[in-house]
Amino acid sequence: MNVTDFDFYLPEELIAQDPLEDRTASRLLKLDKVTGEIQHDVFRNIIDELHEGDCLVINNTKVIPARLYGIRQETGAAVEVLLLKRRENDIWEVLTRPGKKTRPGTVLSFGDGLLTATVLDVVEEGNRLIQFHYEGIFEELLDQLGQMPLPPYITHELKDKNRYQTVYAKYEGSAAAPTAGLHFTKDLLAAIEAKGVKIAQVTLHVGLGTFRPVKVDVVEDHHMHSEFYVVEPEQAAIINETKAAGGRIIAVGTTSSRTLESATDDNGILQAGSGNTEIFIYPGYQFKMVDALITNFHLPQSTLIMLVSALAGRDHVMTAYEEAVQERYRFFSFGDACFIR
Asked: Is this prediction's pTM over 0.85?
């Protein structure tokens, strides 16, 4: 299977640069995964698509202000650091720019020395391991000095950093938002629950791999990045009970989908626990838990559009994307939504 099978033409002006004032005002493309039928709606009407006995699964990860701007202490030259994953205590795996100038032993300084870091090692894909040094509480310093790690295709400044968080964000650890969840408000979620739809939570800390392009020609040759997930026992019970009773498991976002499919055994039972997942879902994959998916519109040739195609079929998805372009839908993180049912 070729990566180019998942390519499509996207005018640059359709890449959403700013979030809508009303989270629920995004447009909603509804795609029938069996027939390929397409319908157009507004996101707040997603409640009409959810039925009593269904279970909506959300990812409660919280984005940290993971982008730091500082200097190399020895030369005073500018450096940018993006936190990817905490390895242990104050040791983090990060992406640095310029990378060639941050060799092991380099000391970095942020906020006039409020926070410093020493480069320890160069690891996979050129990422760095760095150890931070500071007085006080690291999270408070990060909140003071760090910026939200918006994707590279968003060039506008984000006025309210909470707009790059879901309203249910809880556990800090992501370098990117699970953007399908950005369309929900607390009122909409309360109305969905009042309808008899269960809402279950899982955690998957989104890594930079979400933005990394697929660099191979053949889909099967791509190696997925690793991300940490948690499924709590009570949440697994809600999901398993819904499935056993014949209700649909509706994942909010590709991150929730990857968590559910990673933690579900071959008997279709979701196992509570935590771990790292490198699951790569592309056409031919047989879903064990996910029945339907709420997601945004993804980059051409990305692993995310491949996951969506695994659920709804490549031809159906590519046709839907072509129509979304024709109808001037807004794409990517701050863009419109798609419901695959």
From this structure: yes
